[in-house]
Amino acid sequence: AKSCGRNESRFFSSEMNQLAQERLRLENALREALQDNQLHLHYQPQIDLASGRLYGVEALARWTHPEFGVIPPVRFIPLAEECGLIGDLGRWVLREACRQLAAWRAAGLSVPAVSVNLSPTSFHNLDLPGMISDTLARNALDSADLTVELTESVLLDTHPSTMKTLTEVHARGVRLSMDDFGTGYSSLSYLRRLPVSELKLDRSFVADLEHDEAARALSGAILGIGKSLHLTVVAEGVETPTQNEMLREQGYPVAQGYLFSQPLPPDEFARWLGTAVE
Ligand code: C2E
Ligand code: CA
Ligand code: CA
Ligand code: CA
């Protein structure tokens, strides 16, 4: 694994040196966090718009450092990538999300499935499919209980194992979901090559729905593409009742966003679910 901050400090101006040191501190902190349970998952509901019922939950990683405080995923996910910790992080997320799903069910909550985010690097690992199956089995879960979200960048990086791993995960019955759909370079050509079952309309389209006719046209077109390929299309980042209504009129089957709930810690999510289904 690559190490960050290994560059010799004499090549740095003192300011750069300070940055490199801060980075190294953060890298070590992340390594520690993975061992010491400083990482947590929050869960955001995905709503089946036809029935109003829960369709699934997305697990999102959270890190609160005892000293540095809350460090957002946009900061620590890239750090984990660069420092060779992303494999460990992905495995931890998978295990924790599956453990939590099983725990909710044991407590009598009906949660249909959990989605986890995996970075492109995780798909370099040919052991991933087996690891996923083991994790599911250990929690007495079925492959249909898990969805793995990936971004198109999974195919921008040309690692030889990626396609094999994706195909094998799919073959085992775990659904693959294309995250942030519509923002990448060549979304459409990837759709033909990737065994995905779900698309997530990027939230930038949803944000512009109310005021931008082009965004409206595109969200409709993306739904059309998804439908014709028999994919579930999930609208992300739904914040207002108007956005929700527009998406529903367009025929979107599933939506997710602050309108329904922010990502919540497990106990708060269970409470939310309790009141939402009453
Ligand atoms: P993402 O997978 O696209 O996740 C959705 C992000 O949008 C989350 O940010 C979520 O909190 C936020 N969000 C949800 N609803 C709304 C809404 O209505 N409005 C707005 N403005 N935002 C909303 P978060 O949790 O900060 O995560 C950011 C990104 O970090 C994620 O984007 C994902 O790419 C990455 N990430 C988070 N957890 C993990 C993880 O466990 N593994 C990996 N590899 N990446 C992760
Ligand atoms: Ca996601
Ligand atoms: Ca997304
Ligand atoms: Ca994103």
Automatic annotation (TrEMBL):
Protein name (database record): Diguanylate cyclase/phosphodiesterase
Native source species: Thauera linaloolentis (strain DSM 12138 / JCM 21573 / CCUG 41526 / CIP 105981 / IAM 15112 / NBRC 102519 / 47Lol)
Residues of the full protein shown: 583 to 860 of 865
Domain EAL: 23-277
